[in-house]
Amino acid sequence: MKMIPTRTRSVLQMAQQRFPNKTATQSYLLASVPLKNNQTNYKFDFNQKTEFPNVYLNSTDTFICDKLGFFLAAVKRSERGTEYLQTYPNVNIFPTLTPPPATLATGSPASQRNEHLYLVYNGYYKVVLDNKVYFEKMDMHRHLYIPQTQTNVEPTASRESTLAGYVNLEPFIIFNGEKKHEIEVVLPSVSNMLIEAVRQITPDTQDKDHLLVCKALGVLVSSGAR
Prior knowledge:
Layout: H1 6-18, E1 24-34, E2 41-44, E3 62-76, E4 124-129, E5 132-139, E6 166-176, E7 181-186, E8 208-221
Antiparallel strand pairs: 1-8, 2-7, 3-6, 3-8, 4-5, 4-7
């Protein structure tokens, strides 16, 4: 049986002490937003269920977060939920593409550039809970993880560790399902960066989205918000 890490055990103990007679279990939250060209601000809300892949917090529950991760993903709209979270702009998942001239009139982006996705990791994020600022201008670069390979071929799966892409939070963040919270990623103020997925080039890229994914690891306290 796999041992519970010391840090996770301490969060469980804190939850049991702070919320006596409530059920506390290891869990996670997840929110996804599509990347758009020329957009610099991306907001995540774990209280809202959206059309994009997410695991949201019920209004009656509380979630104690001790690790926060940011990832990239690419997935067809018809296959949402099958994406593999990437810890860097993996060229196998986010290739540089330029569509033929005939498709430019369809309204799809003119091209997508793999290197432009590093723009995400040159930004920062902030966390606000119930109008209280917990983190201000935390750099996104700490979530970048590029695995080492022994060949020049990049791996399709970018994570070598289940905790790659995450950082430990100090202090812990407590999300209350009844109270407003906001996690916002801010990219550098540049224009015309081609980070949106190109569609209608090939069958493989049709109806595909590039997603920025925020995932929180920690302890869920059932009925802890009341």
